[in-house]
Design brief:
Number of strands: 18
Structural class: alpha+beta
CATH class of the largest domain: Alpha Beta
CATH architecture of the largest domain: 2-Layer Sandwich
Number of helices: 15
Strand order of the largest sheet: 6-10-11-18-17-16-15-14
Largest sheet: 8 strands, mixed
Shape: elongated
């Protein structure tokens, strides 16, 4: 980062120099004996208008400084809450009071020692006996009444966004709680959490374009994982019957309100189960977490109220196209379906080579957006499900499902394919597509085929998008609102300055 890119202010740097000239360290190492503002509030619930006798030590960031001559009111905030400060010249003394007036500003992090009381209007306040600089801010916070509203700047400088927008901090607290609840739910049911490779010699587990890198010592091309699936299944082969991973995945794809190149998901596998069991598990996870976060399973998302109470609706893919798009796939020729798709503005219909491929095109183009309340779409064509087991009663289909909520795909699950010969043939077809230019087709993973050759029990699996789940449960319309540091386009003329998207 060039010096010209820094937001340091000369006047604030001068105050750092002034503090140092007075023998005061503007960035000390510790503030011992500190307790949270929330703890002070709890212990001072019965405070009256007179200054209390219990001495408190708190620390946090100054959010306002209101000077009334010999008295200054300020707001101090830490992670647990906010409290008003009452600072008098008579208490601090002339020198310290003047120092505060001249060198302390909004945004600075300070340590405070004082006594609790309530003002005439009943606001709990600390009557300050001493105040210490803990970190002198060289950059000013956004104007207090308007905060940080520029969306681009909010995402690029999330640290400022978190400082000035309490609702943003609450979103990421919710995210942390969701992940903790997910771990508790799976742990209570005997699932074990594992970590699998992020750098992989063969990518797989989804149809997506990978990020590619090169390991110089090994002289080998490697890929950032697009999914942990094939490694978790290796663990099932090895004898672990209930496994999961909360993983960071990377896909070299478009960026929009539902997609970020780096994202989080949980993948779960259980031996001796099938896709119906995984739908039930998925319902249990989502409804339980929703209940824990909101105290109910009805949640607002935009102008819609989502009912996440199980059981969720279940529809076959062709049944959904028939009911919601008014098209009976099987009563038309492929040519008729192509005309219908073209006339209704569906994209990529030219690539569909048979009825099942056209089914997927029509579903994605005409039906997905209509699936607002939680709905499992199941029985996917075999052509776009290379890792799912063949359907036990429908030729040409697989035992695969996707869960849609608010028009978004939230989960994807299978009865997992465990026939090594069938899996090899599926991979070979994917490899042909990849060599023909399909950048999202999967690679042929011989080691995974070998693993299946040692025998994988009947297994059900499901992946749930954590970012999208957080979007739903925190009522956020964009994935960038729930990822702390989303990927961004470079700012014009910025060059490579470091930081997220900078």
């Amino acid at each position: 980062m060039e010096n010209s890119d820094l937001a340091f202010e000369e006047s604030r740097q001068e105050k750092v120099n002034e503090l140092k000239a007075r023998g005061i360290e503007p960035y000390p190492y510790v503030f011992p004996g500190r307790e949270t503002i929330a703890a002070v509030r709890e212990r001072s619930a019965g405070a009256g208008h007179e200054k209390g006798t219990e001495l408190f030590r708190v620390a946090g960031r100054l959010y306002t400084v209101r000077n009334h001559g010999k008295t200054i009111f300020s707001d101090l905030q830490d992670e647990s809450g906010r409290i008003q400060l009452y600072i008098r010249k008579n208490d601090l003394g002339e020198e310290k009071f003047t120092l505060f007036e001249t060198c302390f500003e909004r945004g600075d992090i300070v340590g405070v020692q004082g006594y609790a009381f309530r003002t005439k209007v009943g606001e709990l306040t600390l009557w300050v006996g001493d105040i210490t600089i803990l970190s002198k801010a060289l950059c000013s916070l956004p104007e207090k009444f308007h905060g940080l509203r520029d969306v681009e700047k909010r995402y690029r400088q999330r640290y400022v966004d978190l400082i000035v927008n309490p609702d943003v901090r609450e979103t990421f607290r919710t995210r942390s709680r969701i992940i903790a609840a997910l771990r508790n739910y799976l742990g209570d049911r005997g699932f074990l959490e594992f970590e699998t490779p992020i750098l992989q010699p063969v990518y797989g587990g989804a149809n997506a374009r990978p990020f590619t890198t090169f390991h110089h010592y090994l002289q080998q091309t490697l890929f950032l994982r697009i999914a942990p699936e094939l490694y978790l299944k290796r663990l099932v082969v090895g004898g672990f019957e209930k496994v999961y991973e909360i993983s960071r995945n990377f896909r070299n794809e478009d960026i929009d309100t539902q997609h970020n190149p780096e994202f989080s998901m949980v993948e779960i596998y259980e031996a001796y189960r099938d896709y119906s069991d995984m739908m039930a598990l998925c319902e249990g996870i989502i409804s339980t977490i929703t209940q824990e976060i909101h105290g109910k399973t009805l949640v607002a998302f935009g102008e819609t109220t989502l009912d996440l109470t199980p059981p969720f609706r279940r529809m076959t893919m062709d049944g959904a196209v028939r009911e919601l798009a008014g098209i009976d796939i099987w009563s038309h020729t492929l040519e008729e379906l192509q005309v219908i798709a073209r006339d209704r503005g569906v994209e990529e219909w030219e690539n569909a080579k048979n009825h099942r491929e056209m089914l997927v095109v029509l579903f994605e183009g005409l039906v997905e957006d209509q699936l607002v309340q939680p709905t499992f779409i199941h029985d996917f064509p075999i052509e776009n499900s290379p890792l799912a087991k063949r359907h036990r009663s429908r030729e040409g289909f697989t035992e695969r499902f996707e869960l849609f909520v608010a028009g978004m795909e939230l989960a994807n699950g299978f009865s997992e394919l465990n026939d090594p010969v069938d899996q090899l043939a599926r991979f070979q077809r994917q490899e042909e597509k990849r060599k023909a230019g399909d950048l999202e087709a999967q690679m042929l993973d011989y080691d995974f085929i070998n693993a299946l050759g040692y025998g994988m029990p009947p297994t059900g699996g499901v992946g749930i998008g954590i970012d999208r789940l957080v979007m739903l449960l925190s009522n956020r319309p964009s994935i960038k609102e729930v990822i702390l540091f989303p990927q961004m386009k470079p700012e014009p003329g910025a060059g490579n300055r470091g930081g997220t998207g900078a």
